[in-house]
Amino acid sequence: MTSPGDAGAALDGQVDAVLDRDGLDALVRVLKGRGRTVIGPTVRDRAVVLAELDSGDELPYGWGVELEAGQYRIRPRHDDAAFAHSAGPQSWKSFLHPQRVRQWTADRENGGEPTLREDEPRSISYAFLGVRPCDLRAIRILDRVMTGGRYEDPAYRSRRLGAFLIAVECTEPGATCFCVSMGTGPGVDTGYDLALTEVTDDDGHRFLCRIGSEEGAAVLAELPRRSADDTTRTAAAGAVSRAAERMGRAMPPVDLHTLMRDNLEAERWDDVTSRCLSCGNCTMVCPTCFCTTTEDVTDLTGDHAERWRRWDSCYDLDFSLLHGGPVRATPRSRYRQWLTHKLGTWHDQFGSSGCVGCGRCIVWCPTGIDLTEEAHALHQEATERGTAR
User: Fold this and answer.
1) In the chain, what are the domain boundaries?
2) Does pTM surpass 0.90?
3) 310 with 119: CB under 8 angstroms?
4) Which of 165, 201, 219, 331 could form a disulfide with 273 if both were Cys (CB 3.0 to 4.6 A apart)?
């Protein structure tokens, strides 16, 4: 198994084949036969969600989505495409960095001293089917945050090291997608075990498959497949190229790091925070937001206690609470913290942007706040002041 971020480095793009729908179903069976828990997109509760798959038939064949700021709706398609939908309410972060993780338990018997038992990270052999290019980059960013520094997260690493990644290139971007602006899609480069490009045309419904790791090659060898033909290669490349030209959103063509740094006192912050509810939805659906807090709970007897780590949000008033009160007491300061960190100071902290252009924060904001619109507005205000760079 390749280490985080290395999958695809050696074999990327050197071998390809074509799978049909039966081949995709066989892929799920083979991965399950190798002891993996297969996670992929499926339709539940009128949304395309990520869930455990028992067969390839559970993929959202024939379903697409309609997206806008604050709006999400699934819709039937005119074809049987399985991956012609944009990012849903979940990301792979939900499995690699779960919302709640128990850290330890303590029990006291007969009034004696409590016994502390630390929870060992549960090792799960995941296979992620249908990882979008933006989400593939998000996983690489989480790798850097959770395992690339001085303090490694063992719970994250135990899940990540066992993950088999099947990327799917985007051929139909949503109205809120802007991966081209962030350099994260719609094609994939490295970081996968297998990569699929879905093609639906007069020659049929099929998937061009590229190998990105030795295990990917071994899995592909067990699947019904045929050699890739030039027609399928050309159709796949053309679909990805056209997707790049049909992005629903775009960031301003400026250095976003500098834009955020130089406009901390812009009037636009007042405008956007008059609409912000400080609900934290954007941080919950973001595939790279990683902040957590801890909470201790006890039973009614007081003889059993547990400590849990759970997701936290910089929109929470208590997030920056110190003795005497919170550091960021206003919605303005909290929204500004989130956006300037995501697009600006993330570069200083982790060496890249924290945004991958998936558009989830736009879709799942209850008031439809659009971070690309806010970035354009900040740039316009700076231009009018004569301070734009």
Assistant:
1) 16-244, 256-385
2) yes
3) no
4) 331
